[in-house]
Fold this sequence. Notes:
The chain is 30% helix and 19% strand. By secondary structure, it is an alpha+beta fold. Strands 2-3-1-4 form a four-stranded antiparallel β-sheet, with helices on both faces. Helix 3 runs antiparallel to helix 4.
Amino acid sequence: MGSFAALLRAINVGGTGKLPMSDLRDICEELGFGAVSTFIASGNVVFTSRKSEAAIKAALEKRLQAYAGKPIGVLVRSAAEMAQVLSDNPFPEAAPNRIMAVFLDRAPPADTLAGIRGQRDEEIIHYDQGMGTSKLVIPAAKTGTARNMNTVATLAKMAAES
């Protein structure tokens, strides 16, 4: 049995994609996942399963589309992968709420850095002045989802304890 974190794209952000976390928990339990728990209302859920990451992703995306009436992207990471993201933080001295990890389904294109626009005082991806006023645009990140290091740390801990 493995422990996983599923990160949903565009859930409860900016008033779109409303999905109560209690419904997400119920969906995960209906799919047979164990020890299900959610973290903050932005589409983070941790659980155990005997299924592979690909099978979990497919099952969740299918069920969430039926629930929402539109596709909802899901990125699945094992407990070990979440811990690795946390330990690979390139800005360990910076405020963790200003460091973003972008989760993608596949490796970004080789020219990812060339496509970045609006960069000011940000380092990729460290929002020194906060994300709210940033003009930073990373086109490759549009197919994924981002979480700050506080969230990554909590999800890694939750997954490790599942």
